[in-house]
């Protein structure tokens, strides 16, 4: 079973990177903007990763086995239908390499 420890481990890494961004940002008129942009980027990436990780760790709904077969059959049917439609709209000239491929 997965644990919540990776959330805190990655948080420590992000905080360390934010500290490095605050300390090592070059001096200049845009120092505050650069520092803020780097820190907001790190915070946003961490929050997105954390929400995704926790959503997989504790899903709101569990998958139902009865729907899996239905969706697999539906996907296979649509895929076969799509390929049949493509095959009927192509002329034999595509094999011989001449003219337009689509039937008007």
Task: Give a structural overview.
Helix 1 (5-24) packs antiparallel against helix 2. The longest helix has 27 residues, at 31-57. The mean pLDDT is 79. This protein folds into two domains: 1-62; 63-104, no CATH class. It is 72% helix and 0% strand. The relative contact order is 0.08. The chain is built from four helices and no strands. The chain is mainly alpha-helical and 104 residues long. Residues 1-22 form the signal peptide. One of its GO terms (cellular component) is endomembrane system. It is a multi-pass membrane protein.
Output mean pLDDT.
Answer: 79
Could you say which overall geometry the principal axes of the C-alpha atoms support? elongated
Proportion of strand residues: under 5%
CA-based gyration radius? 27 Å
DSSP summary: helix tally: 4
Pfam families: ATP_synt_H
Subcellular location: Endomembrane system
Membrane topology: Multi-pass membrane protein
InterPro entries: ATPase_V0-cplx_e1/e2_su
